[in-house]
Design a protein that fits this description.
mainly alpha, 5 helices
Length: 148
Amino acid sequence: MIEHNKQVAEQLSKLLAESYTLYLKTHKYHWNVTGPMFHSLHLLFEQQYTDLALAVDTIAERIRALGWKAPGSYAEFSKLSTVKDAVGDPSASDMIRELTEDHRTVAEQANRVLKLAGEHEDEGSSTVASDRIEIHEKAAWMLSAHLD
């Protein structure tokens, strides 16, 4: 039987919190984006929050498969996440900049999970993290392509 390390579950919990916070922010920006890039950003944000909605379930289920409880409240997420809630009414360009940086932050957390999971020969967690790195790096690229 594979011995699952609590540290991996803790890092996955941070990844879950950051992903959920990014999901909420992206959804808010989807609803509230305005300006000449409205249509393309509205659709892009929808694709990204839909992916994030599926990702948080995958990450939480991986934590549970490791034998630990997954965080699941705003209070828990706010303590664990370095991605911050959306505040105010930013311009479309500011939304893009924030989300680009947030996707990079989440990719970095997924990379921490990947490295730690590798140290513990936890292929399941490594796969989840590796998949998320690729998706968040692509999301950051797609977002930043909308800026001059």
